[in-house]
Automatic annotation (TrEMBL), chains A, B, C:
Coiled-coil regions listed: none
InterPro entries named among the record's database cross-references: Sbt_1
Transmembrane segments: 6-26, 35-53, 65-87, 99-118, 130-150, 162-185, 197-216, 228-254, 260-279, 291-315
UniProt keyword Membrane present: yes
Keyword set, alphabetical order: Membrane, Transmembrane, Transmembrane helix
A family per Pfam: Sbt_1
Annotated source species: Wenzhouxiangella limi
The protein's name: Sodium-dependent bicarbonate transport family permease
Keyword Oxidoreductase: no
Signal peptide positions (record): none
TrEMBL record, chains D, E, F:
InterPro entries: N-reg_PII, N-reg_PII-like_a/b, N-reg_PII/ATP_PRibTrfase_C
Biological processes per GO annotation: regulation of nitrogen utilization
Lineage of the organism: Bacteria, Pseudomonadati, Pseudomonadota, Gammaproteobacteria, Chromatiales
Domain of life of the source: Bacteria
Listed name of the protein: Transcriptional regulator
Pfam families, sorted: P-II
One GO MF term: enzyme regulator activity
Amino acid sequence: MLELAVQNLLSPIVLSFVLGLVAAGLRSDLSVPEAVAKGLSIYLLFAIGYKGGVEVAAAGLDWRLALGLLAGAGLSAILPLIAYGLLRAMSRLSSVDAAAVAGHYGSISIVTFVAAGALLQSRGVAYEGWLVAVAATMEAPAILTALWLAQRNASARSAAGVPWREVILNGSIVLLIGAFLIGWATGPAGMAEVEGFLVAPFKGVLCLFLLDMGLVAGRNLARSRSALTVGVVLFGLLMPLVGAVTGLATAWALGLSVGGMAILATLAASASYIAVPAAMRVALPEANPAIYLSLSLGVTFPFNLAVGITLYLAAATWLSGG
Amino acid sequence: MLELAVQNLLSPIVLSFVLGLVAAGLRSDLSVPEAVAKGLSIYLLFAIGYKGGVEVAAAGLDWRLALGLLAGAGLSAILPLIAYGLLRAMSRLSSVDAAAVAGHYGSISIVTFVAAGALLQSRGVAYEGWLVAVAATMEAPAILTALWLAQRNASARSAAGVPWREVILNGSIVLLIGAFLIGWATGPAGMAEVEGFLVAPFKGVLCLFLLDMGLVAGRNLARSRSALTVGVVLFGLLMPLVGAVTGLATAWALGLSVGGMAILATLAASASYIAVPAAMRVALPEANPAIYLSLSLGVTFPFNLAVGITLYLAAATWLSGG
Amino acid sequence: MLELAVQNLLSPIVLSFVLGLVAAGLRSDLSVPEAVAKGLSIYLLFAIGYKGGVEVAAAGLDWRLALGLLAGAGLSAILPLIAYGLLRAMSRLSSVDAAAVAGHYGSISIVTFVAAGALLQSRGVAYEGWLVAVAATMEAPAILTALWLAQRNASARSAAGVPWREVILNGSIVLLIGAFLIGWATGPAGMAEVEGFLVAPFKGVLCLFLLDMGLVAGRNLARSRSALTVGVVLFGLLMPLVGAVTGLATAWALGLSVGGMAILATLAASASYIAVPAAMRVALPEANPAIYLSLSLGVTFPFNLAVGITLYLAAATWLSGG
Amino acid sequence: MQTHTATRIEIIIESPALRALTRELDRAAVKGYTVLPVLGGEGRSGPWTAAGEVGSAGGMVAVLTMVAPERAESVLDSVFEVVSRHIGLVSVSECRVVRPERV
Amino acid sequence: MQTHTATRIEIIIESPALRALTRELDRAAVKGYTVLPVLGGEGRSGPWTAAGEVGSAGGMVAVLTMVAPERAESVLDSVFEVVSRHIGLVSVSECRVVRPERV
Amino acid sequence: MQTHTATRIEIIIESPALRALTRELDRAAVKGYTVLPVLGGEGRSGPWTAAGEVGSAGGMVAVLTMVAPERAESVLDSVFEVVSRHIGLVSVSECRVVRPERV
Ligand SMILES: Nc1ncnc2c1ncn2[C@@H]1O[C@H](COP(=O)(O)O)[C@@H](O)[C@H]1O
Ligand SMILES: Nc1ncnc2c1ncn2[C@@H]1O[C@H](COP(=O)(O)O)[C@@H](O)[C@H]1O
Ligand SMILES: Nc1ncnc2c1ncn2[C@@H]1O[C@H](COP(=O)(O)O)[C@@H](O)[C@H]1O
Ligand code: NA
Ligand code: NA
Ligand code: NA
């Protein structure tokens, strides 16, 4: 287990993220243009969605898909409540800040999903392809809970501004679901046509993307060091574990494979850093973005990448008696 | 035939375009950064030009190349006359608007060419590599005809502003011809060096590009619904068929292969959405861009992609007695 | 030898650069978006650094690495002195302009390194992987010498503004060294995961990058024709030969392989066009950027690409008695 | 050349709030607006850069609208509706435009 | 700091017409101009965005030029030459510049 | 809507000099500034375009800062410190801002 953890730490993927962090820490002017970073993320979403769909096409429709979607939405809606409770107990964040942060932890980070998938692949562990659709379902419900938490405690004003259409139809959800459906419709025959683009270069593109995330995370951390009190940072390390346990339990109840359990645990453990921050800036502008952005991107993401996903896979293996 | 048509509709390429259309229709904020879209189009032009050149290097110089270039230029110059006549008969467009639209239909859309090439490849049908040079020749002459039509009927003022150098040396023509010549000069040996970039990922890149085109087409349609009267839309569906017949006849006269006939039909059937719109905005600013952009990108391109190219291939096969 | 030179001239890489030059010369509007060009350069730096590291991991640590780093830094610091002397003798550049230009020739151009690597690879000649680290070391010292030269002769004011941190930690150095270390740490096993991205498409990406460089070089040349007097242009053709001889001698003293000798010669012969120009605009704003940019990018780079690297490889082969 | 007085309103605002802002501008019946990209900046919440950002949450945009002087006040009220809750900066100045029908 | 009066001319115009505009600016002998990118906007012809555009036909740019007050009128005439046939928006305001030789 | 007078300072400068400029702005204690990208332009050193540029040496940026009128003079002095050695263009105009605490 320790050996596997070290092996994970020495993967090009993790080291690329570290390179970004270090470069930002040294205040190097290394940077990935915004358009390129967005292009890389479109590639990753399209590829991961497509692959999930192709696997569903190959494996046949699984009746657990419907249950999984429900469970994912449920996890997304409920986890913010736990997160909010923990935050109020562990830190001195205002209720609005705590609600905003909590929303991030109910939602998910696709790149953490992708990193977990890469780890599983290199260990030869398979997982249910339709989990990519579950991931998409988990993006939005957490926002609802977060806003409910914020309103309950603060000015009722927040209600009006929630851009629901924009939240539910945000680009990454539409792209992920769309690519999933395309993959499903075209199946392995379609995959044969596009795998020179979607499969062969995938891990290398992921490295560049993680380099960029390291740069952004490092700059965020440097900028908002003061916003990250000890209590808040501890929350950022504890909450993924809480999420993972909840995710594992749900996955176990759904009867998922070892790989599927690790993936659902990872999703529950991960925190959004694209969709939810944008929604919060519109719907809860009073919340301090420095807190939720640097916590999600600078604390929880690296924790999951470096340690978390290895741990969740070990737990899943143990749980399934493997 | 029907089965093949459905098979084409279910290709990742067509479905990616549909995903873009649907996302735009749902008003999702999914979008491809402008720089990335331009980068993808540079890739496609370079790859398609290069491959054409390599095929010419492999197959030896074909004396029909010269005839083909002449025929292409001729088609490009003449088709706008037919288009203009049809438009004046079928719609109530002003003469300036009709001339601007007509210019688009004499010129070509490289991505339609590429989609046809992908279809031929998946059916195992070859085509003459030098048709890519013919495509480049077909970009500009239509503009000349369109301006002549506009001037004949309207203010003589338009004449002055035609930026000829910019039209003939526009980026996509130069890139296509340049890559064609490089491919020709370096031949199969050069191809061996670059095929990991220009061949293996080609279809996948095409999917992302078509996703983007779907998004742009969808937004254009939503924005300019009022400009598209029934007559105008019918023209956008009829004119490609007229173009295709003209293209088939020309290809038949030139003695092209089945694949070559399908390609020339596709070129004649396709409508420009990059070079000609830009030229029209400079030379005929009085024409309404909402009409020509949404007609070319939102009506004719999807028609060709979904139905047209399958049809033209079937017609080419039938014509050659296959 | 002549045959090999012609073969090099007809490679897709060189021809892509020529296409860019020609397109710029024709004043075509062909252009690569800034973000895409930056993305391509990040890709190339990451790939070349990573590959160098993997080779070091495979070949074992070479004690000459330390000597090589020292020698590289030394070359970088000393070459500007020679360049400055030559410039003052051959041209009428002011001392500030001469110092700025000299700095460029002590430093290096990574894309020339990459082109040399591609040539070696196609000839089946290997080179020491750690030379990529030497390349990174050669970026900055030249700037120090250039500023010393400028100050000695001109206003002492220049001293203050040298942004040392920015020069030494500039993006390309950090990325190159970082990728090198990642490649070293992950070794051939890591390479197996990412080679579908870093190796297979490499040469094709290089073609697009050189197309862009041709465009930029061509536009620079057109813009600053007046700044390039005969003496200055001759310097731009002579200095790479002087650098190459110095580089060859150093490589020979270090006991490098034939490939390593050709690479170090190429590094010494190449002139910076990214890091040094940016540093000069800050530290020596009095110097005319038209001179150093068009000389480095428009004269020396094409010379090295078309003729130089073939020559240096021939010289290295001859030197090692091959 | 005859020119006509107009009011130039320049708003720097977080990208996620752009839709809300343009909705208000539409409601205030401005004749048009233009959105410009922003690379980075610094304010009370420290320095930031758009470089490498994947989502829109970290970014800002600049919105420019020219309005007829008599409608400036009401447009400003609408703008403030959105901007008051956001970190945006609104600046107003007089200018002259060539074609009065556009403002 | 001593500053000098100048006229700031800001033109928002379709990208394909940029070359024609800068040709006119050159002819009007402006000392310089700067082109800024535009992301999108809205006008009488509805909302638009540069996102995903492959060609230049759909896009716009903003051109900024500072000119000495005494030449402003003639530069505006040149600009209008191009802009009148296009959908561009021209706005003019007074400013002060630090170095008079640049305007 | 109540507005407050402020000074709008717009600086067009080479990208490599941006850090030096913002350092001076920080020292002059401006409350904030915003950096906008520039696509190209023309000046005494001829036309240029950012297209295809890999390094920052060839590019320029536009920096916008709104400052309280009473501090404008000293900010301009700081700006000139950097700009005097560079090819930048500084223009200054009056504007009104909605929230005085931001300038
Ligand atoms: N006085 C100012 N002048 C120009 N831009 C400003 C100013 N104040 C704030 N900004 C912009 O608004 C952003 C957010 O400001 P703040 O909320 O103060 O951190 C900054 O990063 C700048 O881009
Ligand atoms: N009053 C205005 N203020 C700012 N930008 C405008 C204004 N009117 C038009 N525009 C810009 O010009 C473009 C074309 O305008 P229009 O021709 O009215 O559709 C719009 O999409 C905006 O980008
Ligand atoms: N009068 C001006 N108005 C607007 N931009 C200018 C002006 N003069 C110079 N510039 C900008 O500053 C850059 C450098 O100017 P120069 O040093 O004169 O070549 C130009 O390429 C323009 O982008
Ligand atoms: Na989660
Ligand atoms: Na056509
Ligand atoms: Na050198």
